[in-house]
């Protein structure tokens, strides 16, 4: 309400709503919102342009405060934006990728066979058999703690198991995206941060944006194959 942007759109940048995997694979934010540009568009009655940028065509009272950018006031919501947003989406795409590679059964077996250990949550059912209402912040945090370990042997690119060069490269990218987002999610949950942890957070996020394109490419290849068939 304070930013006066459309529901579901980013309050900090002008990325199109519904874009796959959040922001661009090249950078974290696309075209940062500028509170000096929108008043000019409103004054020139460029309503269609404002709608395209997902900005409500009404004057925002915060625009008049030049030293306070209303679009930078937002703090990330770890539960809804990260855990129940980006991480949950990654889990769905990861399962589709494992299924396409005929290794989902191996993943399910490892996922349900995590040994008992203090602080680790154990799951008795495969990831995709759980109802959506079951997913809460606690459950997704539990999945994140062992996700990289469960995926690593399955997506191991050092094994000579008959994969093509393209398949090996794709598995390496998928594993890189999974590891980067798991590291980022675990680092975010820390109560206190230092320059070292903030640098690690930034590096993990950059690696995720660099690697996540593999999942998008798999979806595009699958869509093209379906059209050919």
What is the topological layout?
Blueprint: H1 37-43, H2 47-52, H3 78-100, H4 104-111, H5 137-151, H6 165-188, H7 195-211, H8 213-228
Helix pairs in contact: 3-6, 5-6, 6-7, 6-8
Keywords:
229 residues, mainly alpha
Structural notes for this entry:
The chain is an all-alpha fold and 229 residues long. Helix content is 51%, strand content 0%. The protein has two domains: 1-74, no CATH class; 78-228, no CATH class. It has helices at 37-43, 47-52, 78-100, 104-111, 137-151, 165-188, 195-211, 213-228. It is elongated. The N and C termini lie far apart (47 Å).
Task: Describe the structure in brief.
By secondary structure, this protein is mostly helical. It has eight helices and no strands.
Oligomer: single chain
> Helicity level, as a percent range?
40-55%
Ends apart, CA distance between termini: 47 Å
Order of helices and strands: HHHHHHHH
Total beta strands: 0
Mean pLDDT: 80
Report the biggest beta sheet as strand number plus sense, adding barrel if it closes: none
Q: Note the overall shape.
A: elongated
Strand content: under 5%
Count of DSSP-assigned helices? 8
């Amino acid at each position: 309400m304070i930013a006066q942007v459309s529901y579901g759109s980013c309050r900090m940048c002008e990325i199109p709503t519904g874009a796959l995997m959040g922001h661009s694979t090249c950078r974290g934010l696309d075209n940062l919102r500028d509170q000096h540009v929108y008043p000019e568009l409103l004054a020139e009655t460029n309503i269609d342009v404002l709608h395209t940028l997902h900005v409500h065509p009404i004057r925002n009272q915060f625009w008049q405060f030049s030293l306070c950018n209303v679009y930078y006031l937002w703090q990330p919501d770890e539960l809804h934006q990260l855990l129940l947003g980006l991480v949950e989406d990654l889990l769905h795409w990861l399962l589709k990728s494992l299924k396409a590679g005929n290794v989902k059964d191996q993943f399910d077996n490892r996922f349900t066979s995590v040994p008992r250990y203090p602080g680790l949550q154990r799951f008795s059912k495969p990831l995709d058999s759980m109802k959506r209402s079951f997913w809460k912040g606690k459950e997704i945090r539990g999945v994140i703690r062992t996700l990289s370990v469960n995926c690593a042997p399955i997506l191991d690119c050092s094994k000579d198991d008959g994969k093509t060069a393209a398949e090996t490269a794709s598995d390496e990218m998928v594993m890189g995206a999974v590891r980067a987002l798991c590291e980022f999610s675990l680092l975010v949950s820390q109560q206190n941060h230092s320059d070292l942890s903030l640098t690690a957070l930034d590096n993990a996020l950059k690696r995720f944006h660099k690697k996540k394109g593999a999942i998008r490419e798999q979806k595009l290849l699958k869509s093209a194959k379906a059209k050919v068939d």
